[in-house]
Amino acid sequence: MSRAFVKETDNDTAALPDRPISPHRNLVTETGLAGIESALDRFETAHRAAADNGDREAGATASRELRYWRARRASAEIVKPSEDRSKASFGMTVTLRRDDGREQIFKIVGEDEADPSRGTVSYVSPLARAVLTHGPGETVVFANSEAVILDVR
Prior knowledge:
two-stranded parallel sheet, 2 domains, 3 helices
């Protein structure tokens, strides 16, 4: 097998594309900012361990994650929940009743903090956008269905 066009040096690292950065503002809760800091700590530790072990692939992965989380920390805008409980806004927990009778409770958070399985949704998600600026008793439409907002806290 010909190796004529293969570059081999000790300085080569696995090239991984950067993680995409959202075009939306990086709004975060205080918990979301703590999560970003935790991710930075975790990947800084992973990067050091990879360097100590000479693991270029793990080092490249950790470097990519560090670039992403550093950018997210640099652009983070902490938003505290509004005192006005008459309308849903960033950082608030919303309870609604869907048109099929199911009740759903979720907190509106930043993109990196969102995890629908844990009851948090991104402020740019269709569900959050449907309820933002609406309050208890109002009907909102999303995903071809309706829901009534029961509570905002």
